Amino acid sequence: MLSFTLVLLSLSIFAQAQYTATYLPNNAPKQSQQGQQGTNQCGTGSSQNSTCQNAYLNSVDDFCLFAPPEPGPNSIIGETERIEVSWCLKSGYGTRLIPDGTILGAHFVQTPDYVQVTGTGDLTKINVPKGDSGGELDPHGADGNGNPIGGLVFSSAFGTLMQLHEWTNFMSDSEFCFRGCKDGPNAPALCQHIYDVMGCGWNMPGNYAAGTFERCLGNSGEPMGVYGGSTFHQGDGNTPPAHPAPATSSCTPFSSVSNGLAASSSSAPSSSIVGNSSSASASASSAVSSGSAVSSASLVSGLVSVTAPNAISTGGVISPTAAPTAKAASVSSSSAHPSSTATGKSSGASSLGSSLAIGGVVMGFGLVLGALLV
User: Fold this and answer.
1) What pLDDT is recorded for position 11?
2) Using one digit for the tens of pLDDT, what is the confidence trace for 56-75?
3) Could you say which residues form the signal peptide (predicted)?
4) C-alpha closest to that of 88 among 120, 116, 129, 47
5) Residues ≥6 apart with Cβ < 8 Å to 346
6) 172 with 303, same domain?
7) Which residue in 64, 100, 129, 162 has the most C-beta neighbors within 10 A?
8) Structural domain harbouring 357
9) Regarding beta strands 85-88 and 96-97, do their DSSP bridges make them parallel or antiparallel, or are they unpaired?
10) C-alpha atoms less than 13 angstroms from C-alpha of 184 in its C-beta half-sphere
11) In Å, what is the CA distance from 299 to each residue of 95, 135, 303, 311, 371?
C-alpha cells in the first residue's frame, strides 16, 4: 500500500513539474509560445476580429471553442490548427463571440478530474468550412507548442479560476467536444491527445443530442484508449469500441445558450447586386446611344459640314433634341434591333444626300441664269 502511495505521489510530482509555466488571464504574457500568431493578453472587450487564444470551460452557457480565424474552403481544421482563435458564448474575455444559432445542443459535465462539453451545431458560423470532417486541437502539437500555438485553457468550475494544462478539443462543421483536465496525476491520460483521427464519440463518449442544453455532474470514466492493462494506439490492427459514456447526475436544464449576437452573412446584399446590374445596364445603354450618334454623324459628315445644334440620334437621322422618353425609346429600339437601326441610318443618310444634291443643282441653275440675264 505504501509503495502504491509513493507511485501516486511520484506521478503527481511529475505531472506538476512537466509544466514550464502556469498563468491566469490577468498575468499571461502577450504570447506564451514561440511562433504564436495570436495573443494571450486579451483584455475584456469582445471583438469578431480578436486574435485571442484563451479558452474557458465554465458551464453549458459559458464555454469557448477553438476555430479558424478566417472563413473559406481552405480553413479546414487540419490546415489551420496552428492558428485557431477562441470563440466564446460569453463576452468579457476579449475573444470572439459565438453567434446565436451556432450551438444547437450542448451538454456540460463536471467530474472530479475534468470538465467537458459536447454537442452539435452549425459551426460554419465560426469559420469551419462546410464538409470539414474535423480535427483535433491540444496543448502539445507536433513540436510541443500546441495546436493552436500558445492556446491556453482556463476554468472556474472547480471553485476558483485556474489554468487547465491538459485539454483536448475536436471540431468539425457540425460537432464539437472539449475536455479540460484538472492538474493531477490522471490529467495526461484523461485528456490524451494521441487519438486525433478517432473523433468526438470515441474520445469523449457522452450526450451529443441537439435541442437540449444541460449542466451535469458525472464520473470521470476510463481514459481514452486504455482497456484494462493494454493501451490502444492508432494504426493497430483492430480498433476497440469507445468506452461507455460515464454516468451523470444532478443535471440542470437550460432553455438555450445565446448572447444576442446574430450571425453575419458573407453574401452581398441583393439590393447592391441589383444596383450594380442596373448601373451596368445603364452604362451599356449609354454606350449604345453614343455609338449611334457617332455613327450617324460620320455618315452625314461626308455630305455636309454643318450639324444641327443639340442633335441626337433617332434611328440614324439627325434631328433637334427630342424628349428624354423618346431618346430612351430610341436607345431601346437600337439595342433590340441593331439590323433595322443600321438600315435606318443608311436610308436616312441616302435621303439627306439626295435632297442636298437636288438643292445644289437648283442653286447652280439659278446662278447660271442670273449671269446670262446680267
Assistant:
1) 47
2) 999 999 999 999 999 999 99
3) 1-17
4) 47
5) 299, 316
6) no
7) 64
8) 291-373
9) parallel
10) 9
11) 69, 71, 8, 14, 35
